[in-house]
């Protein structure tokens, strides 16, 4: 049974107070036992005497009325002001004159049956004659009165029943009239993760590659224009760049064959194309405007689970990340995030709370575990900044390859001090390259790039790669204990 008190039946209602228990028992005994007739036990056991009112005896009364107990079961007890019962009247209907002693009756008028009924005394000092005594004449009026009361009770029952039914109908009607949730009630406010995801999911795709005997894999990507171009990571499609198949799975489950438009190992980016022009592209935001602590959303297909959404914040900026090895080595001036990123998220978008792409998810930090060379997400994910992704994608679509800015120096990776050491050999500085023109010499230690400290060779490389060809930058070098600022214009790598 429910604990709601409104659903408890009257018989189930707890009776916590002793007086309620006692009274309830009295009522039950009164309604289940027959009303005793007048006699020796009427004084102590009659229903009316139990509640303080004497019950008339059965049989003829002084007023000529047959005192059937049934009449008093539904009849009206004498309702006189002051709470006293009147003395029995004489057959002629006249009242006793003057004051009468308590319990007295008119001389020779009361029968022995009536005399056996105990009467309550009138109030002290109140003349009995003040209350009219019943006479023989009111029998008809009393019968009419009883009939009227019965009719009134019946009418009240009917009216109450109708009113109760109307009320019940209204309650039931009001319950049935409760509105069902209509369209749009689950809409989320603009700027919420749910609202953003609902808008961007149709533009995020799952990329499946099949390299034949070399195996297959899964990655992510997203639509960048209305011509069917999709941006992803190079390492997602590198295995099938020359031989194999690429299949793009759209958010609605439809699949399309894809071809490689262009890819770049150094930036770990690639552009694919499908024969669809009806897809909505995502907007590339300005990654140079984001700050640490900004909320972000990652969307992709980690471990093959497409349309997966995770969220977090930007944990750090300008993280030098160099994933891969040998010819597959990439240099990323990365955005670090704690949004959960796992294998399969590669190539998917990292979004801000306006729904714009601020990065392309590309790498994660891993902790080697027993029996395995890697583990899953540990809260350290890295994304290629959208500013870099935009420039590279434009170049790949236009020419099929990307250009890389250089300064023209060889760095000593064995150096363990602060900064990036230019090798102390004759050919360490490329002739007529930006560094040579600016005055960089072998043995110089580059300690700042555009005013930001440089601590490792990789940090210098990714800082340079994050810029565009033709930009002018300032390097601060340390030479013979002195710091020198050198200005130079970045040029494209002639070998790329």
UniProtKB/TrEMBL annotation:
Top-level division of the source organism's lineage: Bacteria
Pfam assignment, any one: Trypsin_2
Keyword presence, Kinase: no
Keywords of this entry: Hydrolase, Membrane, Protease, Transmembrane, Transmembrane helix
Domain PDZ: 408-481
Compositionally biased residues, Low complexity: 91-109
GO MF assignments: serine-type endopeptidase activity
Name of protein: Peptidase S1 and S6 chymotrypsin/Hap
Native organism: Intrasporangium calvum (strain ATCC 23552 / DSM 43043 / JCM 3097 / NBRC 12989 / NCIMB 10167 / NRRL B-3866 / 7 KIP)
